[in-house]
Amino acid sequence: MSDSHASHFHGRVEDRRLVTGAGRYAADWDLPGQLYACFVRADRAHAEIVSMKTDKARAHPGVKRVYTGEDALAAGYTQYFVIVSYPGRGGKHIIKPPRPVLAARRVRHVGDALAMVVADSAVAAQDAAELVEVEYRDLPAVVSAEKALAPGAPQLHEEAPGNLAFDYEAGSEEAVSAAFAQAAHVTKRKLEVTRVAPSPMELRGCTVRYDAKDGTYHVHVCIQGINMMRKQLAATTGVPEDKIVVHAQDVGGSFGQRSAAYPEYCAQMLAAKELGRPVQWISTRSEGFASDTHGRGNTVTGELALDRDGQFLALRLDWISDMGAYLSATGSASHTRNPSTCMTGVYRIPALYGRFRLVFTNTVPVAAYRGAGRPDIAYVIERLVSEAAAELGIDPVKLRRRNFIPKDAFPYKTPTGSTYEATDLHAVLDRAIQFGDWKGFAARRKQSEKAGKLRGLGIATVIENTGAGLFPKDQVEIEATASGGIDVFTVSHSQGQGHETTFGMIVAEALGVPLERVRIRQGVKPLFGNHTGGSRSTVGAGSACKLAALKLIEQGRSLAAEQLEVEPSQVEYAAGVFHARGSKRKITLEALAKRRPISVMGEGSFGSTFPNGCHLSEVEIDPATGVTRIVAYNAVDDCGNVIDHTIVEGQVHGAVAQGAGQIFGEQVVYDRDTGQLLTGSFIDYIMPRAGLVPQIRMQDSPVPSVNNALGAKGVGESGCTASIPSLANAMMDALRPLGVKHLDMPFTPARVWHAIRSARKA
Ligand code: MCN
User: Fold this and answer.
1) Could you tell me if the CB of 533 is within 6 A of ligand 1?
2) d(Cα 541, Cα 546) in Å, to the nearest integer?
3) What's the pTM value of the predicted model, to 2 decimals?
4) How many whole angstroms from 565 Cα to the centroid of ligand 1?
5) How many CA atoms lie within 13 A of 506 on its CB side?
6) How is residue 712 annotated by DSSP?
7) Any ligand 1 atom below 6 A from CB of 254
8) Could you give the dihedral angle defined by the CA atoms of residues 521, 522, 526 and 527, in that order, rounded to the nearest 10 degrees?
9) Which of 132, 273, 134, 259 is nearest to 204 (CA)?
10) pLDDT < 50: residue spans in the chain
11) CB 370, CB 199: distance < 8 Å
């Protein structure tokens, strides 16, 4: 992308607002008369609440009311929305134990909210919250999903015996067993996909106002889209969706985490109505670590069966997901349907079988996190493939090529029921090995060796499904206004993806008008459609933008025909102007809209797209310290037609940085005995620093999608999906020659150093 970059781009439309401090985030709402909430949170992982004394807190100056779990139970705010509606093994459905929005009688993770103090000021609320006295009876805690499944483990919910929330399977167990019986070689690994804390810059926050006149709740909150938020709030509170108005302007990052209607928001709804004043709550960063959903958290045993020639015969997975103490809206789909959808990766594997178990533990709930299961499955497949190549002494590129789904097999129906749309895997790989100078690696490794360093080359060839969504269609409304502007209304909400720019470009290009005339308005009209997530907005809302723009031209054509006194078929349109064919008569779209604003709706159902790519990475390890540097990163992606190259580069760059973060440092750690959160701040939770992220070089190798009006495939998550396996494979490539057989992420200096020392001793 950078190489062929001849962009007309002069910065994102939203950037001036955002970098000059003119953005409006959750904490910027300041409603007249607003009160402030502070949550009392569990300081332990698992305990019964024996008693709670709130009298001192209630007597604290400025305090209006203290809410507890009993209030949540009395209101009936105990249920929550979970996307998964499909059955699992044996036709059994997912178990959703109740979760009162303030924990009642029992707390199940450090940070579980059990009381809410509402006061005149944030300081008063916080001071009073410290006066709430809780007497607990401690219960044993379990923070590992595997341990939670073991007999005799502490039990979190009586509704979920054995802590098992859902037992799901995909593929054919029989076919896989038969294929394994024929295998000449089996590569087996148990792999950790660590639990991480998505850490958007903006802290989570919400302000709720209740309008007693019409019984409407106005919820000002950081979101990924209004519809998903309303649906969830309604599911918990029983308030009809049309009585919930969600307001949001700018959102400072989400990565899946802001899609949930968290319990805090519902507790605030309770208070805003009862107290008759708006109630605001803004999280702190440490509170966020203990109450914002985490991501990933899978332990996967994978087995790849190959024949004598290195052809893949079958893949078997035993996938155990740590869901935390309660189910989030998205986590259970992220760790069942999403990985099973792309379980064959980019390979023709005749037999697939995966068993996916979702498990409750005494930890923060897990939800979708950039990629939502796709990086996890790509990691498992790509590590197995590279390990198999090493075990068999086959070049990892050759092994991949040998097993790629051939170009003429697309659209390709996978054994787990997906239909991959067309792409050209060999073209992507060819370009990548040339771009990343695969052949020159041996010489570069020698150079590193001379300097006393270990060099490794990692490859990942990955595919993921994006698009589709909870709501079966996406709507966009466009209005040509009397003031000459083009207003575009969407319910998809940008959290940093630059939709004001790219959606604006789609409309501006379809209408042939300057981008400055187009204004993207997110979440202000209650349209039908999906939230931003699953890298689906361009495919969904973006396509609807194009269809709406084309419809606007058609609508304008009929109106212009009346003005120009010709048949509509005689009216031509170009660059904002309607002409009567064969005459000089014309009228602009602007002039038409001045007479009467023109409003149209574009809508459609757009299926999944399957972006894919090959990322080559090189690392250099200092064996004396275990410190690793990423010395090269070359990405080739097929995301179909690109709307804007700079934005796509930014998306890939950010996602690769997140992948590198997970591979080299990020990990949520709980004390395995007490269940205390050990990584509750950025001192202990290692975010990727600028120095970790190398220059990321990118090229595209597009095959346009046939599933949507733009020919685009999603790109927002693909950098995570590819970088995690690519970097891990690079690490293993560097360490394997020393005799290191296995290492899990994160590849921290200490872990790498220990692995090198143990291998040398052995
Ligand atoms: N784009 C493009 N050409 C394409 C595909 C996309 O120009 N062929 C542009 C789009 O128009 C959009 C951006 O790239 O401006 C991402 O588009 P898309 O792939 O459709 O993904 P979404 O807009 O649906 O974004 C969701 C995706 C997800 S799921 C997560 S998580 C994520 C991500 O995007 N969270 C982000 N990127 C993020 N970026 C920022 N800054 N902050 C987050 O929270």
Assistant:
1) yes
2) 9
3) 0.97
4) 45
5) 32
6) B
7) yes
8) 90
9) 259
10) 1-7, 9
11) no
Q: What residue type is assigned to position 24 of the chain?
A: R
**Pairwise CA distance, residues 26 & 208, whole Å:** 11
- Structure-block tokens of residue 553: 């031209």
Is the CB of 469 inside a 6 Å radius of any atom of ligand 1? no
* Percent of all residues in the chain with a pLDDT value above 70, rounded to a whole number: 99
Establish whether residue 647 lines the binding site of ligand 1, counting it when its CB lies within 6 angstroms of any ligand atom: yes
Left, alpha or beta for 627 (phi > 0: left; psi -120 to 50: alpha)? beta
Please give the number of the atom of ligand 1 that sits closest to the Cα of 715: 19
Tell the burial category of 291 from Cβ atoms under 10 Å away from its Cβ (0-12, 13-18, 19+).
Answer: buried
The residue to which tokens 């907005």 are assigned: 537
Q: Confirm if 356 and 336 have CB atoms less than 8 A apart.
A: yes
Residue 57's nearest CA partner among 68, 49, 47, 46 is: 68
651 lines ligand 1 (CB under 6 A): yes
**Residue whose CA is at the smallest distance from ligand 1 atom 10:** 538
CA 260 to chain centre: 12
Any ligand 1 atom below 6 A from CB of 338: no
Query: Which of these, 355, 207, 344, lies nearest to 283 by C-alpha position?
Result: 207
> Which residue type, as a one-letter code, is found at position 705?
S
- For 126, 434, 574, 677, 720, the CA distances from 370, given in Å and listed in that order, are 33, 29, 40, 23, 7
What's 430-457 look like in SS3? HHHHHHCCHHHHHHHHHHHHHCCCEEEE
Ligand 1 near 256 CB (within 6 A): yes
Residue where the block lists tokens 């507890």? 68
Do β-strands 279-282 and 35-41 pair in parallel, antiparallel, or remain unpaired? parallel
- Distance CA(459)–CA(615), nearest Å, equals 6
CB 715 near ligand 1, within 6 Å? yes
Nearest to 238 by CA among 436, 76, 389: 76
647 contacts 501 by C-beta, under 8 angstroms: yes
Asked if the bond preceding 87 is cis, omega within 30° of 0, the reply is no
Residue with tokens 């709550």, as numbered in its chain:
281
Q: Report the run of H or E that residue 652 belongs to, with start and end.
A: helix 645-664
Asked whether 654 lines ligand 1 (CB < 6 A), one says yes
Q: Give me the pLDDT at residue 470, please.
A: 84
Residue type, 672: R
Ligand 1 centroid–CA 332 distance in Å is 22
CA distances from 571 to 509, 552, 556, 557, 594 (A): 20, 14, 10, 6, 19
Closest CA to 375 of 107, 666, 180: 666
Q: Which residue has the tokens 């390979």?
A: 347
User: Is the CB–ligand 1 distance for residue 499 below 6 Å?
Assistant: yes
**Rounded to an integer, what is the distance from CA 48 to the centroid of its chain?**
34
Distance 651 CA to ligand 1 centre (A): 6
CA–centroid distance, 485 to ligand 1, in Å, is 26
Distance from the alpha carbon of residue 715 to the mean position of ligand 1, in angstroms:
6
Atom of ligand 1 nearest to the CA of 200: 44
Q: Listing from the earlier edge strand, what are the strands of the sheet with 571-574?
A: 571-574, 577-580, 586-588
Distance 652 CA to ligand 1 centre (A): 9
Please report the sign of the dihedral spanned by the C-alpha atoms of residue 220, residue 222, residue 226, residue 231: negative
Mutate to test the pocket of ligand 1, among 609, 646, 715, 718 (most ligand atoms within 8 A of CB): 715
In 3D, which of 322, 318, 359 has the Cα closest to residue 196? 322
Query: Ligand 1 pocket, 640 CB below 6 A?
Result: yes
CA of 251 to the centre of ligand 1 (A): 13
Which SS3 state, helix, strand or coil, does residue 666 take?
A: coil
Q: What is the pLDDT of residues 297-338, one digit of tens each?
A: 999 999 999 999 999 999 999 999 999 999 999 999 999 999
Contacts of 425 (CB under 8 A, 6+ apart): 346, 404, 405, 407, 461, 612
Ligand 1: centre distance to CA 533 (Å): 8
Ligand 1 centroid from CA 334, angstroms:
18
